[in-house]
Each structure stands twice: as C-alpha cells, then as structure tokens.
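Hi support team,

I've been running sequence recovery on a batch of backbones for a student project. Most finish fine, but this one hangs at about 90% for roughly twenty minutes before it completes. I'm not sure whether the input is malformed or the queue is just slow. I've pasted the structure tokens below so you can try to reproduce it. Let me know if you need the job ID as well.

Thanks,
M.K.
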C-alpha cells in the first residue's frame, strides 16, 4: 500500500505508514479492506510461501486541485483504496533521470524507484483536501510522483507465473547505504512477518495437528507389525521358522532369469559351488515343543536333481527335487539314520546314505559327514538268582529267574537266552531256565564217605600189610574205584551253561546280565551220631541214637546180631534225627547207620551199643565159662557169643579213647583183647605186666580176625 502522505510503500495489512506515521486507510476502508484485498487477489496466482505486494498500476500524480462533485467525492465502500496511474507524458518531453543512479524516473516522483534516494530539488506536491477526505491524516500527504507507463507494463509483471514455475531469480539490486537501506530491510522483514492475514490462508491446506500425526504413525507401526506377523507365519509354515530361508526363496523367485542377467557369472568359469557339488553339511535341530532331534542337511546338487534317502526306516516320502540354485535343505528326523535296533555302545557313529539322481539320469553319491550321537543306556536288576553263578540241581530242576527293568516305558523287551519273557507294567519280569545237561550224566555211584572207625582203619591197614587178598579179590575191588573216578570226572568236566538275561530297546544300549550255571557235582552228605558212650549203654536194653544229617535224607540201621532191632528214624527239617535201638541180651553190639539223598554220596555212621548185666560180679563170674578152654572154638568162629572168664598178664595198652583197650596173655600163644567196661576198675600204663582176671561177654574177633574180643564187665587183681 502506498502512503498518501509521503508516497512510501507499505504492506497491505498495515494501517499506519512506517515512514511518516500517517493512516493508510479510513474506517470504511479498514472494515472492507480484507474483502477488497481478497477480491483483488483473485486475479493473481496464490502463492503458499509469500504474497507479493500490491504494486500500483499507474504513477501517482497527487490529488487534483479542482473540487470534486458530490458523487465523485464519496468513496466507494465496497473497494479498497487503490492509487491510479496518471497518463503517460508526451514522448517529446525528455524523461527525468535520477541524479544518484542515472536511471529514468517519473517527473513527479519524490524518490528514485531504483536506488530509493530522494530526488533533489523536487518537493512533494500537497494533496488536495477533497481527495483525502475519506482518509483524514494529521499531516498533509506529499504528492505522489508520476511513473512512466513502461515501468508498469503488464508484460513485465514482477511476479509472472511462467517465470515462477521456471525458477524465477530476481535481479540483484544495487547496494543501498544509509538509513534508506535499513528502512528497506525493515520493510521487507515486516512484510514477511505481517503480509498475510489469517483469511488469506483460508483456501490453503492447514498443517496437520498432533493427534493426526500420532494416528498416522500408529497406522504405519500397525502395518509393519502385521507384515512381520504374517511373514513369521509364512516362514514357520513353509520354511520351519527360518526367515533367512524364506527370503532366499523369495530371492530365488526373482532370480529365475538370472541366467539372462548381463552381470551373471561366466558358466565356463569354475567356482567354489562347482567344487562343492554333491556334498552336504549337517546341523542339528531340536524341536522346542517336543525336544525331538532332527538334522538339517544342506545338499549341493544340480537344479532338477532328485535327492533320495536310503534307509531301513519306513518313510512317507524318500525323494525330494532340487528346485533352484543347485541347493536344497532337508530336515530329516534322527531316527531315520539310526540303526533302529538295540546297540552295544553309548557313543554311536552313523553315516547317512543319500544319493542324487541328476536330470540326465546319472546317480551320484552325496558326500555326507558322519554323525556322532549318544544313545541312552538301559539298566535292570536281577534279584534271583543272586550272584554270577548258580549250581544246577541233581535232577536238573528249573532255575527261577526274577528281576526289574528300570525306567520301563513299554518299548523295552526282556529276553532270557533270546527267548522273550513277560514284563508287567512296572517292569517286573519272571522266568525260569532248565539246564540241558541230562541228570544221568551227573549221577555218581553210591559210596561211603563217612569216616571210618578205628576198627575199620585197622582192618584196612592189616589187609594192606598182610596182602591176604587173592588176585581175583584185588581185581574185583579195583573195578568200583575205576567206575567211581570216571563218573566223577564226567560230572566235573560237564559243559558249562549260561543264562543270558537282556533288556533291549531300539537305539538304546542293551542291559545284560550273564549267569553261569555250574554242572551238578555229587555232594558229600553231612551224617554223624551225637551220642556219648554213656548214652549208648542201657541196662533196660533200649538205646536212643541221636545225630545230624543233610535235610531230607532217609536213614536206615543194620546189625549183624539178631538180638538187635531198630525203630523208625525221624529226620527234622533242620537235619536232626533220632533212632531207637532195642537190645534183647546182655552184651555189646555193632550197628551201622546209613543216610541216602539224591545228589549226595550215601552218609554212614557206626556205633557200639551195649546192655550191661544186672547180676552181681560174683554171680556173673560163676555163670561164665573159661575162655581158655573155648579159645579154639572162638578163634575158628564156632562160638560167637557167651559170657567168659579169662586170667592172664597185661602186656599192652592199645587205646584209651573212647574205650580203654588192652591185650592180655593167657598162656604162650593164647591172647585176648579186652574192652574195659567196668564201672569200678580202671586200667592204665602202670598195670602193664600186672596179672588180672576179667569176666565179660564175647564180642567177636579183633580186627586181625584171629584174636577173640571180650567185653569186660568186671576186673579183679590176681
């Protein structure tokens, strides 16, 4: 807006001139200024970044000095004040020039339009009071200088649309100095800050609010989250959760025509991929939800090749095709490569067998590294039989087997010598094993293993020393010994058997227990009489024998005298036994006990039972016969029993335990062996060469088979 007082240019929104302080518009103009400005601006292009000033269309020549009519005097309320451009001066009149910059100026302009300096010698014309009646001012307004018509040519409009679109660059103005230069800068600053009213921006897009910005970025984040979720879903469904594989697959889709790429590698050049063809690398994969182990096998093979897995396991699909890039990754469960059978070692090495069939039909073996795996170890406990060995029974009765499988899961099977046995839900198993060795091969001939008595030892010694046996008798005696030895060797050298108990499960280390079955060997029966000498004697004639034997044995008793009878032997579970012996006459009698049990040698025991006389020693001696007179009959065996009296000298004490046995010489060549059973008299070494008289009962012949034995009840000194 041009000040009517001083002619200065001011911004449209200013109401007071910055230069002289005069009001730029009256009240009516101020009230309708915005509408007028908007109406006038409709012809000009809208510019978002700056609004150009309203340059005058014609030079201002000052207010006319002639009075105006009433019609023309009243200002138009519907339009803003606009300075009018006076008609151009005649062409013949020379145009004045600025004394400062030399450029042409209007003849009535107070300032140079180029340099802004006041034109010397020119005073602004006083405006007419009638012209400025609508805009009262405190000071008279200077006359407006006239502008040349060429300075405001429409073709040279300062803000041309085409020049703006083509990148208009304003010409660099001349340097101004002094107060005017500063004033222009202030005008421009104020113009930039206050040139537009809010109404000027009504038809322009408004700046987004804070809420709109937050909503916009929230939608962006939501979109990215949805892309990520669907991407992970696709990767998990088709690529086992491997995002890298998904992007590799997407890249392979866009790279299908890579062979036609101008930047593709020369196929004639050998690359690392060519050298790694028909090879594979293996990595382990553990499913986080099931903990199942699988292997990701990265195979390098020509595109279009068929990859075949060779295994004993049952597969739904054993082939796959290399789709692109000469590479395929297969995820295969570990059980496919496992032996699927019980194993013997915890550390197991497996070798995957994979082949590739190229598009031209050639079969190539894929070089796959070995896989080292650790397999579980089964365990079990065997409670019967205990230990690592067990003895077979005499009759080869079955051997009981019982045990427990630890951590039983229903897939574990128990075998006894490769024969599957029943296992309950807790892992408990029971079975039995019958040795295969026949019982007949283990049968031993019956023989006596009981210790021999002193008499037996003496008799055998005498037999060996005298050599009275004939050749036939010796031959007969040796045969049983040979048979007995052969049978014993056969039993001891019998084949050893084993019981192998195994708990098996596929792909697990087998639990094994080996028990050795020792062949049955004939055992010696435990058999003995526990009576002392006193308990073997009974005046009533009834003696009870007691002893011990192997439990289950059957006991029988025999005697050479018909005056001795036996009751039924009773054997307890612990092996103790009792047997009643009845003696019909006074005297001493030898009895033999024998125990029998399968698998044992026969047990034997001997004892001497006696029935002492109840008569007095005198009466017994009177009733007894003279042994010296009956010596030959006794020695020949014609007389085997009876009561006798003998007198002679003691020449030798043979034994003192359990009986005192001594030798008595009756006469030259006549000797008698005496067993001292007197309750009053004792014989010891001091009695040797002493003369004694003995009364007793004939017991038979001594171990030499020639000397009579007298069981002496009474002894007298002579």
């Amino acid at each position: 807006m041009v000040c009517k007082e001083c002619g200065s240019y001011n911004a449209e929104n200013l109401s007071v001139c910055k230069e002289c302080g005069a009001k730029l518009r009256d009240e009516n103009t101020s009230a309708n200024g915005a509408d007028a400005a908007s109406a006038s601006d409709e012809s000009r292009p809208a510019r978002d970044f700056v609004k150009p000033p309203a340059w005058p269309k014609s030079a201002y020549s000052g207010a006319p000095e002639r009075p105006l009519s009433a019609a023309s005097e009243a200002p138009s309320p519907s339009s803003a004040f606009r300075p009018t451009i006076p008609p151009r001066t005649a062409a013949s009149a020379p145009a004045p020039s600025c004394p400062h910059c030399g450029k042409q100026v209007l003849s009535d302009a107070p300032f140079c339009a180029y340099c802004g300096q006041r034109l010397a010698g020119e005073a602004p014309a006083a405006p007419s009071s009638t012209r400025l009646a609508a805009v009262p001012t405190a000071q008279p307004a200077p006359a407006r200088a006239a502008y040349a018509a060429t300075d405001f040519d429409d073709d040279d409009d300062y803000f041309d649309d085409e020049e703006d679109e083509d990148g208009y660059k304003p010409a660099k103005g001349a340097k101004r100095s002094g107060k005017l230069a500063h004033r222009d800068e202030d005008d421009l600053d104020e113009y930039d800050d206050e040139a537009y009213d809010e109404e000027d921006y009504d038809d322009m897009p408004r700046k987004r609010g804070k809420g709109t910005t937050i909503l916009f970025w929230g939608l962006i984040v939501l979109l990215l989250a949805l892309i990520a979720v669907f991407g992970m879903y696709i990767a998990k469904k088709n690529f086992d959760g491997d995002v890298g594989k998904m992007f590799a697959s997407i890249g392979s889709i866009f790279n299908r025509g890579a062979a036609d790429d101008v930047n593709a590698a020369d196929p004639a050049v050998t690359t690392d991929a060519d050298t790694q063809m028909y090879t594979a690398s293996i990595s382990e994969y553990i499913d986080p939800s099931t903990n199942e182990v699988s292997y990701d096998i990265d195979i390098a093979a020509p595109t279009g090749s068929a990859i075949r897995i060779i295994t004993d396991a049952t597969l739904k699909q054993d082939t796959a095709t290399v789709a692109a890039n000469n590479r395929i990754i297969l995820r295969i469960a570990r059980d496919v490569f496992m032996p699927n059978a019980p194993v013997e070692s915890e550390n197991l090495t497996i070798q995957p067998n994979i082949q590739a069939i190229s598009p031209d039909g050639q079969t190539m073996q894929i070089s796959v590294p070995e896989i080292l795996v650790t397999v579980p170890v089964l365990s079990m406990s065997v409670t019967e039989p205990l230990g690592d060995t067990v003895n077979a029974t005499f009759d080869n009765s079955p051997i009981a087997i019982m045990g427990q499988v630890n951590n039983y899961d229903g897939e574990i099977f128990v075998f006894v010598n490769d024969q599957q046995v029943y296992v309950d839900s807790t892992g408990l198993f029971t079975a039995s094993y019958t040795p295969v060795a026949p019982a007949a091969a283990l049968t031993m001939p019956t023989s006596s293993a009981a210790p021999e008595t002193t008499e037996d030892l003496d008799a055998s010694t005498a037999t060996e020393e005298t050599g009275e046996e004939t050749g036939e008798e010796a031959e007969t005696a040796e045969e049983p010994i040979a048979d007995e030895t052969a049978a014993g060797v056969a039993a001891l050298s019998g084949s050893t058997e084993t019981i192998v108990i195994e708990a098996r499960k596929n792909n697990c280390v087998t639990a094994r227990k080996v028990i050795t079955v020792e062949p049955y060997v004939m055992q010696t029966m435990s058999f003995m009489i526990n009576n002392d000498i006193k308990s073997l004697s009974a005046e009533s004639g009834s003696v009870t024998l007691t002893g011990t034997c192997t439990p289950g044995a059957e006991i029988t008793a025999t005697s050479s005298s018909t005056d001795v009878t036996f009751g039924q032997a009773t054997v307890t579970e612990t092996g103790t036994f009792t047997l009643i012996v009845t003696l019909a006459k006074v005297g001493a009698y030898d009895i033999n006990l024998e125990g029998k049990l399968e698998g044992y040698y026969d047990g034997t025991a001997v004892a001497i039972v006696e029935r002492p006389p109840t008569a007095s020693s005198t009466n017994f001696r009177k009733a007894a016969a003279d042994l010296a007179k009956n010596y030959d009959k006794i020695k020949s065996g014609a007389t085997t029993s009876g009561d006798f009296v003998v007198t002679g000298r003691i020449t030798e004490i043979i034994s003192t335990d359990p009986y005192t046995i001594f030798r008595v010489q009756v006469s030259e060549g006549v000797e008698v062996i005496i067993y001292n059973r007197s309750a009053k008299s004792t014989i010891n070494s001091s009695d040797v060469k002493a003369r004694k008289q003995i009364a007793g009962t004939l017991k038979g012949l001594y171990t030499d088979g020639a000397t009579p034995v007298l069981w002496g009840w009474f002894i007298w000194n002579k």
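--
Follow-up from support: It reproduced on our side and the slowdown came from queue contention, not your input. The two ends are 191 Å apart (CA to CA). No action needed from you.
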